[in-house]
Design a protein that fits this description.
single chain, mainly alpha, 23 helices, globular, disordered N terminus
Length: 578
């Protein structure tokens, strides 16, 4: 007995090396498996330096938190935020489903947690559109918009940090501890993730919930009874946050079947089919239940009286909408979304203004706004995930969700920004860690250099993350020449503009064309609209939001052409001298 016990203790270098060949088994599996030194994952710090991994995780998340909080403190409300904050306040105070039906309640319930701490004055009797209600809450009800917006943004910031832990855990389980750190670094320094993770909007929560669902399905391969319901809950949370997550439902159900089938090589075929269908059904039922619970949390009686008319939707889309086992408010919100999709919106890409949409808009915009290091590591990691045998099992979970959601998003009619594809950099961060599994001696060094490149690129744009563009396209100072709307100018810099005018241009005549939800006089900006007077009367400073300049035609375009650019604010507003 003593001899056997002594054999399990590494007493010399050979024994320690032999023990190092034991790689951790999958979650819920039968324990460690023996691997050769050549095929072992690059596992990073070991032994006495195990504390280094959690320390680095904490440091990466801490710098991300600083970046997001700083951005949240300095930015004025973006175009969508007042609507979400007002709707969240209405949920909190009136418990009614009235505003913003085109987006389900969960994301706004999260925002409501911050609104509750701010405790704003709110007039439920105010009549107006959802945008007007938002402006009334922020600027006409005696509230401090800076304080209210910071509190409304904090829950989304917190959730974004928690999703960072999911990124780390997913990559660590697929590649190893070093892979987890690489993925977390790519995520924590992603300008798009920081930009939208610091706003009281719905894009980052929806993307993070989809990732969490994919990770849960990955773990369900070895513990389906625990992780399949959790995958369904995360999927339901995504669908209860943004309707654009609906295409993920059939895909996640299919991956649930794969997760149930994978470890059951010896089960008979009929049993495997039944178990797979049962797994898919569990995911779907839990997801639907989460959506219902979300609406019931707002109003247990599910009363729905829209503040604005709900358009009628006919044909196949209308019939399919009626068949969905979801609350009426959700289905009416889908009708609003269909109407928005049918509207002829204007887009702007690489200096070209157009009406309608281009199928290649999102890939092109992602090419501009994704750091070059992530553009290199993400696709390379995707190839490694398919090519390296020990990573291949993770390929469906890492590659299919972003591919399917991106393909669907490319058919949309609103070419407004990469926020419609925010799941791409989130999944790319995890996938990029797969490069470490390549049997190439320089892979760790090259990966580290590319991660460093991403970090430097991100730090250089601080704190102007919304207008970020990578170095190949000239950086954030040139984004407005290539893209518009939430890619660069979403109304976030009105407060910074007020500071610039006070500091550098006191007392000067100001003409302003501002695209956003803010109210310029509140911030002390005394300006007139140059489009309402003859051009020969416009003298002094002409201040134009870059999105408005991109779409300028007629008199505004002539005014800009006959003026001289003298300053810029936040890479989103340009000041011209006339």
């Amino acid at each position: 007995m003593m001899a056997r016990e002594q054999q399990t203790v590494p007493t010399d270098r050979a024994d320690r090396a032999d023990q190092a060949d034991l790689a951790p088994g999958p979650p819920g599996g039968d324990g460690p498996t023996r691997t050769s030194a050549r095929s072992r994952p690059y596992a990073g710090p070991r032994g006495r330096r195990r504390w280094l991994v959690p320390l680095l995780v904490a440091l990466l998340l801490a710098q991300m938190a600083v970046a997001m909080v700083t951005t949240a403190v300095q930015q004025t409300p973006t175009i969508d935020e007042p609507v979400y904050v007002a709707t969240a306040t209405d949920y909190l105070r009136e418990h009614r489903l009235r505003y913003n039906p085109e987006h389900p309640p969960l994301g706004k319930l999260l925002i409501a947690a911050g609104v509750a701490a701010a405790d704003p004055h709110y007039d439920p009797s105010y009549a107006g559109t959802q945008g007007e209600v938002g402006r009334h809450l922020l600027y006409e009800s005696g509230n401090d918009p800076w304080r209210l917006m910071l509190w409304a943004r904090l829950p989304v910031i917190t959730l974004t940090l928690l999703f960072g832990l999911v990124v780390f855990a997913f990559a660590r389980e697929v590649v190893g501890p070093a892979g987890g750190l690489v993925a977390l670094a790519l995520y924590a320094f992603s300008p798009d993730v920081i930009a939208h993770g610091s706003l009281a909007t719905l894009d980052m929560p929806a993307a993070g919930f989809v990732l969490t669902s994919a990770w849960s399905l990955w773990r369900a391969r070895h513990a389906p009874r625990l992780w399949l319901p959790l995958a369904g809950a995360a999927l339901g949370a995504a669908v209860a946050t943004k309707m654009s997550a609906l295409p993920a439902v059939p895909l996640v159900m299919l991956l649930a079947v794969v997760s149930v089938w994978t470890p059951r090589h010896d089960a008979d075929r009929r049993r495997k089919v039944l178990l797979g269908l049962a797994g898919a059904a569990v995911v779907a039922l839990v997801a639907v239940a989460v959506v219902w619970v979300t609406y019931l949390a707002v109003d247990p009686r599910l009363r729905f009286t829209a503040a604005e008319p709900v358009p009628a939707v006919h044909g196949l889309r209308g019939r399919l909408t009626d068949l969905l086992p979801l609350p009426r408010a959700y289905r009416d919100g889908m009708r609003v979304q269909f109407a928005l999709e049918d509207y002829p919106w204007q887009g702007y890409l690489f200096g070209h203004l157009y009406t309608g949409s281009h199928w290649y808009y999102l890939p092109a915009a992602l090419l501009v706004k994704t750091p070059l290091g992530l553009l290199a590591l993400g696709p390379a990691g995707a190839v490694a995930t398919v090519a390296v045998s020990r990573l291949r099992a993770a390929a469906p979970y890492l590659l299919l969700p972003p591919a399917v959601l991106l393909a669907v998003a490319m058919t949309g009619s609103r070419d407004f920004g990469t926020r419609y594809a925010l799941f791409v950099p989130v999944f790319l961060a995890v996938t990029g860690a797969g490069v470490l599994a390549l049997r190439w001696r320089w892979a760790p060094l090259l990966t580290g250099l590319l991660v460093l490149f991403v970090a430097v690129s991100s730090l250089r744009t601080f704190p102007y993350y919304l207008p970020y563009a990578n170095e190949a396209f000239g950086g954030p100072a040139h984004t407005h020449r290539l893209l518009h709307d939430s890619n660069v100018d979403w109304g976030q810099d009105l407060g910074r503009l007020a500071d610039r005018l006070r500091q550098r241009y006191p007392g000067e005549r100001v003409w302003l064309v501002y695209k956003g939800s803010g109210v310029p006089p509140y911030y002390g900006i005394d300006a007139s609209d140059p489009r309402k007077v003859p051009p020969d009367r416009v003298h002094g400073l002409l201040v134009v939001s870059d999105s408005a300049a991109a779409k300028a035609r007629g008199e505004l375009a002539e005014l800009i052409a006959s003026s001289r650019a003298v300053d810029q604010v936040g890479h989103s507003i340009t000041l011209y001298r006339r």
